[in-house]
Amino acid sequence: xxxxxxxxxxxxxxxxxxxxxxxxxxxxxxxxxxxxxxxxxxxxxxxxxxxxxxxxxxxxxxxxxxxxxxxxxxxxxxxxxxxxxxxxxxxxxxxxxxxxxxxxxxxxxxxxxxxxxxxxxxxxxxxxxxxxxxxxxxxxxxxxxxxxxxxxxxxxxxxxxxxxxxxxxxxxxxxxxxxxxxxxxxxxxxxxxxxxxxxxxxxxxxxxxxxxxxxxxxxxxxxxxxxxxxxxxxxxxxxxxxxxxxxxxxxxxxxxxxxxxxxxxxxxxxxxxxxxxxxxxxxxxxxxxxxxxxxxxxxxxxxxxxxxxxxxxxxxxxxxxxxxxxxxxxxxxxxxxxxxxxxxxxxxxxxxxxxxxxxxxxxxxxxxxxxxxxxxxxxxxxxxxxxxxxxxxxxxxxxxxxxxxxxxxxxxxxxxxxxxxxxxxxxxxxxxxxxxxxxxxxxxxxxxxxxxxxxxxxxxxxxxxxxxxxxxxxxxxxxxxxxxxxxxxxxxxxxxxxxxxxxxxxxxxxxxxxxxxxxxxxxxxxxxxxxxxxxxxxxxxxxxxxxxxxxxxxxxxxxxxxxxxxxxxxxxxxxxxxxxxxxxxxxxxxxxxxxxxxxxxxxxxxxxxxxxxxxxxxxxxxxxxxxxxxxxxxxxxxxxxxxxxxxxxxxxxxxxxxxxxxxxxxxxxxxxxxxxxxxxxxxxxxxxxxxxxxxx
Length: 696
Fold this sequence. Notes:
This protein is an alpha+beta fold.
């Protein structure tokens, strides 16, 4: 019972000690990583299995909160690397380190990849506090104690286990971290290897860009220039992903690091997607795949513009989601093209993309499983995959040119064979056609000889006809001349009789007027016949002079002996310009129009002759009061020898209107039926006015 009492009395103190030890165990890592003198020289010592993690959604926790405060018991073991995706929460890592007595005190803690916005190490100072070492791409590169493209924290390890804390936070890109420990000498060798690999990669990329630009200009193939741009984008993306852009170009602009990475990533997606669609010729073989890749290009272009505008943090998840979604679709399209469409000529570029994809997946497995997966580090796998991808793709581009040249030679040989066959067939055709042409030529010569004989006979006939026409015209001229002399004597005798003492007798006066009308009608007939001969096509000469149409019309009225000539009236509306023409022909044309108007007008009705000038045309309107022209006769009244039914009661030959129109047209004018009706008709003689310089 005493023991029980003592135990009872000592219970509260023991309970407090046990509770303290329990809390201390909960605050301590599960185990400490003890480093020896041989560690960290040839390769880094990973911390993937020795980490505990706790997430800070608010991002406002301090080291005191997670080390000794309310948050110290919230850590859970972490298997594998840190993979937080696009979360903007702060992440606290806790791990315990120690070294053996023979191991050096100074070590370097490397954090990869260098795409972390905030990375702060809290190392124990030995006095119960912590030494804060802030890094991350949000800080200037010059602030780094170790000037490396990766984040390297100097760590002094004690021989007894000590607890370390690492706070990580990203603003945009997915948060991923891989931690390993190095001795300074081993770290320097590994860093030298990184820079050497990057130098080789950039040198090879530069060489590939220059060579493909030269080949593209030489071969006039835009695919080489596209591939050169693709290689440049890969080099730029590698420089940004591995932290070299922050070291070489953006050391004093840390706020641009994340933005530049996303901008380069979007541009690479655009160029790479377009290049993939071009090298596999989806537009030719499978248009739906081409449309899909065009949509991916547009998607990344929009993201590219938004990233340039400063919205990189907001759109980073969407860019990654687009890349993750388009990659399997691209693989499906390529497999469909190879195995369904059986386009095996694209096997080499497909292998290039497949190697890059496989090595990338292997790098992810290496990152997750660490030493369980054999091989080099994920970054080295990335570089190796990039080099293999570029080399194979360059070979694929060159192979495409080789295949194009081979196809060109085959096509040229086929064309030459077709040309040779066509030439042989053409030679046979030429032989046959030559024989046919000779036969045709012989028949043609015979036909030409026959036509020559026929033309000779035709020329003889035409000559006979011409001589007959000449004789006819000479006869007509002779007869007309022989008629004019007695007609003149008859007209003179009738005129003398009219003015003699017997002229006062009504019977004598009536008979003399009848004689003179007959003489005048016969004279007009003779003149029209001679005029028709003068207007023949072979008689084109006109005796041109300046003619005053008003004076010509008045002179005709004064000397006109046709019955009813007193009914003619002349009306000149405005100052009338002169015309240039043959006075005798123009007189006959106007006389015929006046004579027709007098013949077809009632004896008591006047005939008006109106002269006017309109738009450089001299118009002479002869207005009668006759029965008009029927609708059926309008189209034929100017035909030679045509007489309308309404003119059957009036003597005539049907030459007057025809000759008047022919004379007008020979002078560049015309005679038209301007108006017609039951109350009369208006015939218009239109002639061009003579230019002023011709008149003067």
